[in-house]
């Protein structure tokens, strides 16, 4: 099947990258470089293919099974792809997640840290891919949302260090329906206090605000690809 290129996808990709750079450059304070995570969950494969062909290499998925269905074949063609897990991880899927993803952004509890540490210890042949981790913070302390509470984040970070799990940043999804800036600012403050260099925050509707508040990774789906099926 011949796949027609989607001019809208290319245009929105370029516009978002330009917008990211402009926002970062215009910061009142010197802002860190920021990377686009193209959130490809629920998107048709031809569009993902096109974005890879155009040069995007950083992608985010929130479900293990969906990512396993898509990414091994895509990555065989684009080996320098970097894949981030941005959805919750059940401990019984730890091994599969470690084998597929480059970065797990959703560490949120000690049982998961234990499961990750155990799989890494068992992996004598070094076949697991993932060596980079973020802690997901439930920044708005919402009952229905995953993530560790802000007040418990430092002790989870210490626990990761004890288990030799290298945490490089924090990730959050602020509450829907209220201005995100105070939540992004709080995540930034926490990362600074803990000496963490990376901040994954900002989605289609609020990525510019997140960049102004120090995001190093923005996770964008619909503004890039269009609505998910
Ligand atoms: C789906 C998702 C995104 C992307 O959301 P859009 O609003 O489509 O940009 C970002 N982060 C997480 C954790 C997601 O699950």
Keywords, please?
229 residues
The helical percent reads 40-55%
Structural category is: alpha/beta
Mean pLDDT: 95
**Number of DSSP strands?**
8
Query: Which sequence of strands runs across the widest sheet?
Result: 7-6-5-4-3-2-1-8
Write the layout of secondary structure elements.
Layout: H1 7-25, E1 35-39, H2 45-54, E2 58-61, H3 64-77, E3 82-85, H4 94-100, E4 103-107, H5 110-122, E5 132-137, H6 153-162, E6 167-172, H7 181-194, E7 198-200, H8 207-212, E8 217-220, H9 222-225
Parallel strand pairs: 1-2, 1-8, 2-3, 3-4, 4-5, 5-6, 6-7
Describe this structure in words.
The protein has helices at residues 7-25, 45-54, 64-77, 94-100, 110-122, 153-162, 181-194, 207-212, 222-225, and strands at 35-39, 58-61, 82-85, 103-107, 132-137, 167-172, 198-200, 217-220. With 229 residues, the chain is of the alpha/beta class. Strands 7-6-5-4-3-2-1-8 form an eight-stranded parallel β-sheet. The model has no long low-confidence stretch (mean pLDDT 95). The structure holds pyridoxal-5'-phosphate (PLP).
């Amino acid at each position: 099947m011949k796949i027609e290129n989607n001019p809208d996808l290319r245009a929105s990709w370029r516009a978002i990258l330009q917008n990211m750079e402009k926002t970062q450059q215009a910061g009142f304070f010197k802002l860190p470089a920021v990377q686009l995570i193209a959130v490809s969950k629920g998107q048709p494969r031809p569009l993902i293919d096109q974005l890879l062909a155009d040069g995007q290499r950083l992608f985010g998925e929130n479900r293990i099974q969906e990512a396993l269905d898509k990414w091994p074949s895509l990555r065989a063609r684009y080996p320098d792809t970097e894949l981030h897990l941005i959805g919750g991880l059940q401990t019984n899927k730890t091994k599969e997640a470690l084998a597929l993803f480059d970065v797990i952004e959703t560490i949120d509890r000690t049982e998961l840290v234990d499961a990750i540490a155990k799989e890494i210890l068992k992996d004598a042949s070094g076949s697991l891919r993932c060596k980079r981790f973020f802690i997901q913070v439930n920044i708005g302390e919402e009952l229905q949302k995953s993530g560790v509470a802000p007040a418990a984040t430092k002790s989870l970070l210490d626990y990761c260090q004890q288990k030799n799990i290298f945490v490089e940043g924090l990730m959050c999804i602020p509450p829907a329906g209220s201005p995100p800036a105070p939540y992004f600012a709080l995540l930034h403050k926490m990362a600074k206090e803990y000496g963490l260099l990376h901040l994954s925050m900002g989605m289609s509707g609020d990525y510019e605000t997140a960049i102004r508040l120090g995001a190093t990774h923005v996770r964008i789906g619909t503004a890039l690809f269009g609505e998910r099926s």
